[in-house]
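pinging the channel bc i need a second pair of eyes. not urgent but kinda urgent?? the chain im working w is below, pasted from the shared doc
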Amino acid sequence: MDPIVSELVERLRGNLGASAVTMDTEHQYTVEMEGFLLMVHYLEDSEQILLATCVAPLPQGERENIFLALLQGQYFFQRTSGATLAVDNEASFIVLQAVYSLRLLTAGSFIHAVERFMQAAEYWRNECEKLANAGPEETDVQAVMLASGLRV
């Protein structure tokens, strides 16, 4: 394991408690944080750290509003703190994921990146929950999306 990765993980343990961070494999840790399971994975070949978490289950029906909101979130990374939203259709969940260059991180900047990432995950969890629970008459996502884009 890269010594920088070990330092970053130890900083997480120091902030969250030893029991919150579990080593899954030599390159992957699971962190219990704010009601989320955060995956921290070291990508050895590219010397990057991947953060990923499940944001919400994918609704069985009426997915259009959620998909439209997720696509809008990808537009200039609105409310994602630079992370990417994705859908695992097979496992039926929405995921937020981000990759950071290991060589550009310090222990402090890593903790800050994790905090921003988790704030984005919480925001999208709340948004997905609202959209999943709203009836078609309660959401006019398309009108909101049309009003928030670039104009020429």
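so Residues 107-133 form the longest helix (27 residues). and Strands lie at 21-25, 28-33, 36-43, 48-57, 84-88, 93-101. — does that match what u expected or am i reading it wrong
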